[in-house]
Amino acid sequence: MKFILLGLLFFVYDAEAQVNIIPQPASVIMLKTMGYFSLNPATKIVLEGSGMDNSVSFFNDYLKQFYGFTLQTTSKANGNNNIFLNYERLDDSIPGAYHLAVDKKGVHIEGDNETGVFYGIQTLIQLLPLPSDTKTLSIPDVQIEDRPRFAYRGLMLDVGRHFMPVSFVKRFIDYLALHKMNYFHWHLTEDQGWRIEIKKYPLLTQVGAWRSGTVIGKRPWKGSDNQRYGGFYTQDQIRDVVAYASARYITIIPEIEMPGHGSAAIAAYPWLSCFPDEKTNIPDSILSDDGKKANGKIVYEKWGVAEDVFCAGKDSVFQFLQDVIDEVVLLFPSKYIHVGGDECPKTNWKRCPLCQKRIHDLGLKDEHELQSYFIQRMEKYINSKGKTLIGWDEILEGGLAPNAVVMSWRGEKGGIEAAKQQHTVIMTPTTYVYFDYGQSRHDDSLTIGGFIPLEKVYKYEPIPAELPVDDGRYILGGQANIWTEYMPWPSKVEYMMFPRVTALSEVLWSPKSARNWDDFQQRLPFELKRYDLWGTHYFHDWAKP
Ligand code: TNX
């Protein structure tokens, strides 16, 4: 009888003591003391050093929002009811390592820098029980050693196809922080909308941020919804968002697309095109009424690739883009500036006398080399501002700009090629991390197509097997892309990203050896309860897609 009881006790203990941390830390040791630390409103945060305000604010905001109280900070311990925060400047090659220990008397978080403390706080948040009636939160005795695997752990959000309000952008940034991710790639310009205020060119947002309609349904589309649609961020709003991200140790990389995906800018300033007098080419059957009436260029109303691109023959186009970059670098402290470079049809360049003259004068072989010239010229300018250029993998065609970082999206090929050329690479392949692709075998909602279930994301390995071992070090990390053609509002973005972002965070943070699909599935249900707590929308049928 005694034995059965003991067994039962252990069972209860184990079930409760199970920790559900995502991404899985490098090492978790559950202490067999069966002890708990009780966090309550009297618990003090002991700051054993300075510079940890971001971590304290984040933790207190979280407690306030979901548990209804906050904790006071102090520099001296108070009895046995403390959370100690501390860091040393160890400056690991990849910032963010931390050590977290819980015992009856308190919680100790030691970062190898401030970022490490912040990630320790994220783990502490995940050790909290879900809110209940009591204000005493039991945290099991545990010892955690943890550090990130990749330096770049990112998510891209396309606000060009559909504009996302600042409130949601901030929520999105919180999601990144909660998953220990550190780069937010903000895709700010598109054919269907220019979303960043540029003081020198006010028409970019007065004209370029608004379209007269949007196609309905899937390609080849069922007509136009005929609704005026748009929005943009003022420079003040951008500064505010950048500061918000920085307080969460997240760098925002702005993307200004060139030479393709520039229709919205061209609608605002038609001289950016090779053929300023030609109308935007969209069939009447899917065009808005205003679009039909327009005589010249309009902001693009359908999805896909537009043929009207920035002219590579006019110096005035480069001047314009440099002016834009001038304002962008003042807003974003990031060392990286993304210039797109993807999906640039060469149709216009082939028939444009100025582009052809440029090819001839510079002795270029073809339009691919002209694109390479375009990116290299912009790279020189961006480098002169002390910044590094990032481009999609098309920037490999016609020759890579000397210092460029490559984002490999058309599978892993581009990344492998760039790493072999000793360029830094960020992996974002359509085959594993396109969060606009469906999560379900059957259409559970309107998506662009494809099928990338949770398990596929989880099993993604960012360092391609084909890459010679030595070249693996060029893989800075990975990122999922959220293209929003079929995500008209924030709840749809959430539905498409969750729970896949949970799997991605583990791919990018956890040691390869700690990754285990079965174990992840055990931890996931608790993570979904956190989503419920946060009021987050997510795809439910992940287990049987
Ligand atoms: C390709 S990925 C694009 C985007 C689309 C996406 C849809 C990339 C660099 N370009 O413009 O939105 O496919 O999946």
Question: Can you walk through the features of this model?
Answer:
- With about 550 residues, the chain is of the alpha/beta class.
- The protein folds into two domains: about 15-145, 2-Layer Sandwich (Chitobiase, domain 2); about 165-515, Glycosidases (TIM Barrel), CATH 3.20.20.80.
- The protein has 18 helices and 21 strands.
- It has helices at about 1-15, 55-65, 115-125, 165-180, 205, 235-245, 265-270, 290-295, 315-330, 345-350, 355-360, 365-385, 415-420, 430-435, 455-460, 490-495, 500-510, 515-535, and strands at about 25-30, 35-40, 45, 70-75, 80-85, 100-105, 105-110, 135-140, 140-145, 150-160, 185, 190, 195, 210, 230, 250-260, 335-340, 390, 405-410, 425, 475-480.
- The strands form five sheets. An eight-stranded parallel beta barrel has the order 10-11-16-17-18-19-20-21, surrounded by six helices.
- Helix 2 (about 55-65) packs parallel to helix 3.
- It is elongated.
- The two termini are about 45 Å apart.
- About 50% of the residues are buried.
- Ligand TNX binds near residues 342, 343 and 448.
Give the arrangement of secondary structure elements.
Blueprint: H1 2-17, E1 27-30, E2 36-39, E3 44-47, H2 53-67, E4 72-74, E5 82-87, E6 98-103, E7 106-111, H3 114-127, E8 137-140, E9 142-146, E10 152-158, H4 166-178, E11 183-187, E12 189-190, E13 193-194, H5 203-206, E14 210-211, E15 229-230, H6 235-246, E16 251-258, H7 263-268, H8 289-293, H9 315-331, E17 336-340, H10 347-351, H11 353-362, H12 367-384, E18 388-392, E19 405-408, H13 413-420, E20 425-427, H14 430-433, H15 454-458, E21 475-482, H16 490-497, H17 500-509, H18 517-534
Parallel strand pairs: 3-4, 3-5, 5-7, 10-11, 10-21, 11-16, 16-17, 17-18, 18-19, 19-20, 20-21
Antiparallel strand pairs: 1-9, 2-8, 6-7, 6-9, 12-13, 14-15
Helix pairs in contact: 2-3, 4-6, 9-12
Bound molecules: ligand TNX.
